Structure formats: C-alpha cells, structure tokens
Amino acid sequence: MQEKILAILKSLGLIPADKEDAVKTALAEIKPEPTPPVIDASKLTDPQLKTLIETLNATVAANAQDLKTMTALFAQEKSAREAAINAAKSADAEQKKANAEKLIGEALKSGKIAEADKQKYIDKAIADLDGTKGDIERFATIPGFRPAADASGDKGEGSGQQTSKIRGPLSSADTTILGAMAKMENSSN
Amino acid sequence: MNIFQASYGLDSDVGKALLTKTLTRYPSLQIMEFSQEPFAYSTYPVKPDVGDDDNSARAINADAKKFVYEPTVGGGTQRAYSFEYFIDAAYLADLKIGAITNEGLRRQLQNEQLRLFVKLASDVLYDMINGDGAAPHILGLKTFIKDTPDETGQSEVFGFTKAQLFSSLVQVGMTLDLNNMTQLRMFDELLTRVLAEMAGSPTLVMNSLVFARMTQIAKALHMYGTTLSDFGKPIDMYGNYKMVPVPLKFLPNTETDGESNDLNSIFIIDYDEATGVRYATNTGFAFKDFDIVSETPSGKTRADFVGNLKCEDIKQIRRLSRIKL
User: Fold this and answer.
1) CB contact under 8 A, A158 and B103
2) In angstroms, what separates the C-alpha of B231 from chain A's closest C-alpha?
3) Residues 6+ apart with CB under 8 A from A125
4) CA-CA distance, A114 to A108, in Å (whole number)?
5) B186-233 confidence digits (pLDDT tens)
6) What is the extent of the structural domain holding B180?
7) Chain B residue closest to A165 (CA)?
8) pLDDT tens digits for B78-96?
9) Helix (H) or strand (E) holding B176
C-alpha cells in the first residue's frame, strides 16, 4: 500500500528528489487503524457467553456484508443517474439542434435569411430559439428572393398567400378563406 | 367541425383552392357542421329519451326513474358521391410534339377539376335538402320534416315518431309583405317564439328569394347584423341568428298549401358537431389530385363526399313552411 501511495505521489510530481527517502520513512511509520479484537468463541468456556459472542460475531459479519452490498448498490445507482443525466443532456441538445434547424430551414424557404448565414443562425437559435425566432420574424424578405419549387411542382406550402402560387383558373380563389384554412391547419398541428 | 376540418386530401394548394371556390359559391357550406364518423354510423336519438312525463322528483327511499342503455337502436350508412377524371395518353402525346405545353395542360385540367368539384358539391347540397334518404341519396331536410297537413304524412326516422317530426313543422301561412309592418311583426313574434323553444344557436336556411326578403325585414325591424363564418366571410344575421341562402334550384319557391303554388320554407337548424344537427362523414370533401410526373399531370383526379344527415334531438331543427312572399 505504501509503495502504491509513493508511486502516485511521484507520478503527480509532489515529491522533490531529495525528499523521497523522508517521505518513504514517513509512510512506513503510518500504522493501520487497529482492527477491533475478534473474540475466539471456541476458547470460551461459559456456554452462555460463548453463544452470545458467536451471535455477535455473526451479526458483525452480516453487517459487513450488508455494508459491502449497499456500497455496491450506491455505486451502481450513482452510475445509472449519471448516465441518465448525460442522456437527458444529449437529448436536449439534439432537440435544440432539431428545433433550430427547422426554424432556420423555414426562414431559408421564406427568404428571410441567406444560405450563407445558415450555420450562424442555427448556432444562434440553439442558444436562444425564441429570441432568434423573434429576430427572424422582423427580418424583411431578401430582395429578389424566389421560393424554390417543391416535388409536386406547386410552389411552397399552403398559406393565405398561396393563390399567387397557383397559376390558372384557381388563382382567383378567395384569399380570406384560404387564410382561414391555413390558420385552421396551423392550429390543428 | 367545419367542412374544411372534416375533409381530407385538401393539403395541396389545388385542393384548398377548389374547396375555397366551392365555399364561395355555396356559403351555406361554411356554416354547416360535420362529424367524422364511420361509414356505418349511429343515428340514435338522444338516449335516454327523457319525456315530459318523466319526473326526477321522488319520495325518500323510493326508486329513481330508470333509463336503459340501448346501444343497438338506430344506425344507418352514409351516402357516397364521387367524380373521377382521366387523361388519355393520346392527349399527353401532344406534349411530345409541342402542340400543347405543360402549363397550358395544367390550366385546362384545373378548369375541369373545378367544374367537377363544384358539381359534386352541388349534388351533395341538393340532396342535403331534397334527398329522399334511400340509397344512394342523403336524407334531405325536406324529406326529414315533410310539409304535411297532419302527422300521418311524416315518415319515422332516426327513432323519432311521426308526432315528434310533425311537432317540428310550423306552417306559417303568412305573406312577408314589406308594406305590411303588422304582418312582419307577427312573423317576427312567431320566429322568436320558435327560436326560443329550440336548443343552441340556430341558423336560418332559406332560398335566395326568401333570403333577400328576410334581409329587408331584418333591416326594417332593426334586427339586421353580420358576423363572420369560420372562413372569415361575412354572414347576415337576423337578430342573433345567422341567415344563409341556398340556390332556388335546391330549395324552390314552389311549395303548395293546396291553393297557392309559390310558397317557401325556412329551415331553422342548430348545427353542432356534438349535439346538434350535422352531417356524419368519413371523407368531408375529399380530393385526389393528378400525379405529377416531370411537371406533366398524369393518371386521374378524383373528388368524393361520403356522408349523411344526423339529428339526435328534434328540438334542434324546425321547418317553417307555407311562407309567401
């Protein structure tokens, strides 16, 4: 044990070279805590005392085992809780990232921010989603922005302004009704 | 829920625009309520069916009046209305030689889709008022509450007795003459009396001629107002009650009392998804657009409505018949 302690202290650079022997000597002088004397019940002649001592010895042994078990359980619980905390932190970070990417994705689609600024605003939204959302809502659409066509050939998602995205006879559909539909869709999502 | 909330397949811009055009043409669809229910839907009258003779007051230690759960009473099926539209590959071949353009074709197809969607809605709305209830037609309001001289002419439906159905009929027998204020006040009194006996906040459904006259009466009696539908469009009000017109074709002014043949009805309906009059549906106005392959529409487009009338409490509907203008 003393050798191990000495090795640790040396590895940590806590022992100057000229003090090594002194430390070694000091460590050698450290006496282990006296262990409580164990009474050998077999040497007792009084049967009642012998029974009592045997019972006490058994209790001490059981307590020691319990202590060992409890210590192991505490260590296990501590480990599990630390893992759960780490998992929660990780999930929270992932959720924040997903929310941020969604927000910035929508801002890109609506022409509120440029592709070049995407990562900058994702980082900002991870740190403060609501604040970044508020900022983006106040942004004007980038001049000359044109929405990208989606897979269906229609442009953009449904909204109150979507009639402008449909060419042809349906483009004159009532924008008030379309706007009300968009609100209903949003409120049901 | 309203017709938009009850419909599926309207998540595309084209689907929404089609329904929007339809709601603009038939504003009564903006007011109606729908409940999403299976094709084979329940038509129970309100259970337990508490009558005026069922008094809850009881002596101490006496039994309470018992009502019995009757899950097997009532039930019907919804009615299906559909249109499908195909493009033959022979027409698509015109694209290959440049005789038509993708954009031109899409516009042309939108025209056809709009015509089909509106016609489907027109058929449904017509049957909502006139349908005889026999498959494949919806039970119409005029069939539900017939304008008959006595209860024997009614047809039991939804668990309602002929007497209950006849009690929902109010034969007005008045002329709504704008030059006769006394008559108009009498009509207002009758209308107020009927509305006060009903549940909820009913809507007055009438043909366009009656609607025009009722608007004038509301203004003359200082009862006129407006509100907004779920879709943000103005709706005329008579006092606290919405008024919606339906085309004369759907609710003609040709009803008769045996003498005159130019009489009208007003249906007073408490539309409510949970407890009122509504249309059970498992589609709403469903829409399937063409598939798009490289910007060229292909395959088929389809519009559907599956639904039927549902009314569990006869107090939630009244028919004012024999109204002369």
Assistant:
1) no
2) 5
3) A99, A100, A103, A104, A132, A133
4) 6
5) 999 999 999 998 877 899 999 999 999 999 999 999 999 999 999 988
6) 174-275+315-324
7) B13
8) 999 999 998 888 888 888 8
9) none
Q: Total domain count for chain B?
A: 1
- Chain A residues with CB-CB distance to B17 below 8 A: 162-163, 166, 170-171, 173, 178
Of A158, A165, A180, the CB nearest to B232: A180
The minimum CA-CA distance between B6 and chain A, rounded to whole Å, is 11
Mean pLDDT of A100-104: 89
Cβ contact B16–A162 (<8 Å):
yes
Closest partner residue to B232 among A162, A171, A177, by Cβ? A177
Residue A63 has pLDDT above 80, yes or no: yes
Show the CA angle centred on residue B164, arms to residues B162 and B168, nearest 5°.
Answer: 110
Q: Which residues pair with B224 in a beta bridge?
A: B238
The tokens describing B83, both together, are 């249109």
State what percent of residues in chain A have pLDDT above 70.
Answer: 83
Record: contact A158-B13, CB cut-off 8 A: yes
d(CA A13, CA A5): 12
Non-local CB neighbours of B138 within 8 Å, separated by 6+ positions: B79, B124, B127, B128, B131, B279, B307, B308, B309
Query: Do the Cβ atoms of B296 and B71 come closer than 8 Å?
Result: no
ipTM of the complex: 0.82
B70 to chain A, any CB pair closer than 8 A? The answer is no
Q: Residue B205 phi/psi, 5° resolution?
A: -105, 125
> Chain B residues with CB inside 8 Å of A184's CB?
2, 4-5, 230
Say yes or no for a CB contact (<8 Å) between A168 and B110. Answer: yes
User: In this prediction, what percent of chain B has a pLDDT beyond 70?
Assistant: 96
Check CB contact of B24 with chain A, cutoff 8 Å.
yes
B148 found inside a domain:
no
- Give the nearest partner residue to B5 out of A154, A178, A184, using CB atoms: A184
How much is the pLDDT for A145? 66
The dihedral built from the CA positions of residue A100, A103, A108 and A111, taken in this order, carries a sign that is: negative
Contacts of B14 in chain A (CB under 8 A): 154, 166, 170
Average of per-residue pLDDT across B3-18:
87
Mean pLDDT of B282-298: 83
Whether pLDDT at A161 is above 60: no
Chain A nearest-CA residue for B13: A158
Please give, rounded to a whole number of angstroms, the shortest distance from the CA of B108 to a CA of chain A.
Answer: 8
Number of other CB atoms surrounding residue B168 within 10 Å:
21
Domain annotation covers residue B195: yes
Within 8 A by CB and 6+ apart from B62, the residues are: none
B233 found inside a domain: yes
Q: Where are the domains of chain A?
A: 1-32
- Is B207 in a helix, a strand, or coil? strand
